[in-house]
Task: structure prediction
Amino acid sequence: MATLCRLQKNNYIIVVITLFFFHLVYYSVIATTNINNNNGGFSAHLIRKNSPNSPLYKHKNNKVHRRLMGPDTPGSRMKIDPGSGEHIMKFSMGTPPFDIYAIADTGSDLLWTQCQPCKACYKTNFGVFDPRKSSTYRNITCRASDCRLVALSRPLDYQPNFCRENPKGLCLYRYAYLDTSSSTGALAKETVTMTSTTGKVVTLKDIVFGCGNENNSTITGTEMGVIGLGRGPLSFVSQIAPYVGGKRFSHCLVSDPNIESKIYFGNGSEVLGEGVLTVPLFDEQPGGSNYYVTVPGITIGNDFIPFNSTGTLLTKGNMLVDSGTPMTYLPQEFFDRVVAQLKKTVELESFISSEDSTICFNSTTVPKFPTVALHFEGGGELPLNETQLFHRNEETKAFCFMMVNTTTEDYGTFGGSLQTDFLIGFDLDTKVTKNMGGVSFLRIWDFAFSPTNP
Result:
């Protein structure tokens, strides 16, 4: 069982979430490791992007909408949040090792970083990985089975017959995200090393990753790539599964930037406990890379606000759990009804933020907000506290809602800020029912909100 985050304050609320999946298509991705502790399981540090311990601490503008964009996914304008809830994982690539700082993202499945020689790379303060200097770097060719895993993620100018005519050519990929950032390059294998929370060096060989030499980011000087933690076959979690005890991991994202967050892989990462409430998980497609849950609505005070308006059927899997998107997104029509209820319930002057079109409340002290709970299919309710729902806007000195609207999608996103102060476990091996997985919750204790802890 995963150890709870080591918290240095009293009065926290921790909600334990365990996600299980039934229909996961697994592709074998060869890797070897020297992991021996806990039958392969290990834990690593996560750095909150706005933490004083973060190498990105001085950069105020942080990407918020980093969800992966597929062939049928509409684009979305970027949103900015000075108190970004994104979390960074530090690891090294190559021999000799080169340090990488990448966003931990459950909303995508590829690990990628910028690579030399760059055709078009965004500026970073931490350098760019040069595979020519690594003795363990290996290209993946077109005819390799791993190359088929990016068959739907090819460069814009990719010719359909390229691999057929060039079987020994490089396996090319392109990943695009809803904030307009993207990475294009060659799929390759490399040795990844990281330091566990116990101080031991964990070595993972032949990890498939994207070596991007054409990349663009809406922010410069910040992260060096993305480490995809989705459930697809290219996911870091799927690749290391045979060597750490299975396709499972858990993370504890702490809202206080001065307290360390952690991530656990394999054996020992299980989230268990008495009194667990389980709700179904929706599998949108066999072998898919995303984590979807079904949310019928939200309670604000004593009133229940349904996800769908009266007379329309609830769509299964209408909420995506995505740590790489700090803000929580709601479809416009649902968002409008939630905001209207907040205005009725909170007896304070309010205004709509010009930055992200969400509601803010004017107050010089911490306002008394109504109780809020997210409802899941099956009757489960997840109580949310002020830290997860509101942040202090230092420019306006107001308290602003950390759920925003999306006009391009009919589903919501359970973002990273809403996941803070939870221990969340993703178990891709366990079957809860015959044809459906589940999400389990366990409330541990209460958390006292502080305006200095956004």
